[in-house]
Amino acid sequence: MVQYSEKVMQHFMTPHNVGEIKDADGRGEIGNPVCGDMMTFYIKVKDNVIEDVKFKTFGCGAAIAVSSMVSDLAIGKTLEEALKITNKDVAKELGGLPKNKMHCSNLGAEALHEAIKDYQNKIKEKQ
Amino acid sequence: MGNLENNRIFFDNASTTRIDDRAYREMLPLFKKHYGNPSSFHSFGEIPEEKMEKARMSVASLIGAEKDEIYFTSCATESNNTALWGIARAHRDKGRHIITSAIEHYSILNPLKEMQREGWEVTLLPVDKYGIVDPHDVKKAIKKNTVLISIMHANNEIGTIQHIKDISDLAKQAGVVMHSDCAATAGIIPLGVNALGIDCCSFSAQQMYGPKGAAAIYLKKGIKMRPIIIGGVQERGRRAGTENVPAIAGFGKACSIAKLEMEDNIKAITVLRDMLTEGILKNIKKVKLNGHPEKRLPGNVHVSFEYIEGESITLLLNSQGVAVSSGSSCASAALKTSHVLNAIGLSPAIANGSILFSLGKYNTEAEIKKTLEVLPSIIEKLRKMSPLS
C-alpha cells in the first residue's frame, strides 16, 4: 500500500482548481501518458500577478495532489515569485511524498513554469 | 460469510486469500499443544509428523499426484526458484537452455535473469493479444541443449489459461523436463498433473484459502532436481529446514476442501465475474476487457479504462472500501507498467489505466452491486480531471 501523507490524500480526494481556462494567458504541459503522468496547467495573468490557475492531470494520487497544491501556491503570486516555486517546495507543502514519487509525479511546478513561459513568449511576440 | 465486515470488499484474491476457517482450525493445535519437530525420534515429533504426512496426502490428492512426489516449501516463489535452479543444475550435462514465456511471474523471470548471468541461455516466448503461448513457438524454440520448459498454467494478472497439455506433449517428445507455475490455479480450477502432462509444478496455500508460509513443489518420480536450500534431510533432502508444520497442516486442509468444493466455487464465482464484467462494460465507456474471453480464471476481471491512471482508481476505490490492484507504472515499485500488459500489446497509456478485480469464494452479489454503484462516478471524476479525455 502506498503511504501518502494526510495532506496528499486531502488534495487527491478533493483537488482544488481542476479544469481548463478557455481564454488562458498561458498554457504549460509536461509528462506523457506513457510514463504514467501528464499535467496541463492554464494561467490567467493580470498586472504581472497570477489571478487564476486551472489544471488537468492524468496520473497517480501524488500527481493529482501535486497539481492541486501547485495551483494553490501559484494563485496571487507575481510571475517572478511563481517561477521560484520548486518541485521540492511542493513536496514539502504536501507533508512529503514517497521517495519513488519524487521524480515522476512531482512535475507540477515545471508545468506551471511552462505556462508562465508560454505567457511571457506571447507578450514578447506582441511587442 | 461475505467480506462485508467493516463494509470492506476484497477483490484482490489473486494476491492472497482469506484463510478458510476449517483450515485455520486445523493449524491451531500445532502451535502450542503439538509443537514438536516432525524430524524428532521422541514422542513430541509424532503428531506433527502425522499431521504433516496427512497434509502431504491431501496436497497430492488435489493434483492427482503420489504422496512422495510432493515437497513442502515456504512460498510459491521458493517453489519456482527451486524448480528452475534445481532441475537446470541436475541436467546441466545435457545443456544449458531454458524456455519460458514473457508473461511469467517475477519469481520465474527474475531467477532466470540471474541464471542468464551465470551462463544459462533463456528463450522468452511471446504471447498473443489474449496472453496465450502458441505451442508452435515452443516447438520452434526447443533445441538439442534445452533442459527445461516452464510455462505458467494461468496468468495471475490477466487470468489467461494456457494450452499446457499441447506444450508438455512437445516437451515429452523432445525429452525436456516440463515445469508449470500453478500458483494461480491450484485449488481454484481442476489441475491434474497427469492430464496436463507436467513433470513439475509450483503452488502455494495462501492463494487457495490456506495460510501464508506453506507451498509445494510437485516433482514427478524419476525427474532429477538438485536442492537449493541445503542442510538436513527434511523433505527427503530436496528442501532442508524444519517444516512449517502448522501452515502445512492448514495447507493440507485447504487442499481437501478445495477438492470437494471446487466445482461449486467455480460456478458461483463465474456468475459474479460475469456480472461484474458485464456491468462495467455496459455502464462505462472506453473500457477494454483484457485476457481471453473464455479461457480465463473464474474470478478474473481485468479491465483498462482509457484516459485515466490505475493507481488513482485504486485509491478512490479503496476510499469506498473496495480493494483491487493495478498494473499501472505508478502502482508498481519499479515504476514500470506490467510486463504482462506489455506482452499482450497494450500501449503503455492504456496499460496505465488497468485494474484487476480478482474474485474469490467469499465474495457476494451484494459486493458486486456495490462496486458497480461506486465505480462509474470514480471513473467519471478522474476523466473530468484528465487532459486526455
Write structural notes for this entry:
The complex is a heterodimer of chains A (127) and B (389). Chain A is an alpha+beta fold. Chain A has one domain (6-121): Sufe protein. Chain: A. Chain A contains 5 helices and 3 strands; from the N terminus they run αβββαααα. Chain A has a 3-stranded antiparallel sheet. Chain B is an alpha/beta fold. Chain B folds into 2 domains: 9-18 and 262-385, Aspartate Aminotransferase, domain 1; 21-257, Aspartate Aminotransferase, domain 2. Chain B has 12 helices and 13 strands. In chain B, the strands form 3 sheets. In chain B, strands 2-8-7-6-5-3-4 form a 7-stranded mixed sheet, sandwiched between helices. In chain B, helix 9 (310-319) crosses helix 12 (365-385). The longest helix of chain B is centred in the C-terminal third of the chain and has 39 residues, at 245-283. Chain B starts with 8 loop residues before the first strand and ends with a helix. Chain A binds chain B through residues 2, 12-13, 15, 18, 29, 32-40, 56-64, 100-101, 104-105, and chain B through 307-309, 311-312, 315-316, 319, 328-331, 333, 335, 337, 347-349, 352, 384-388.
Classification by helices and strands of chain A: alpha+beta
Question: Helicity of chain B, in percent?
Answer: 25-40%
The neighbouring-strand order within the major sheet of chain A is 1-2-3
Percent of residues of chain A in beta strands?
15-25%
Terminus-to-terminus distance of chain B: 41 Å
The structure class of chain B reads: alpha/beta
As a whole number of angstroms, the C-alpha radius of gyration of chain B is: 21 Å
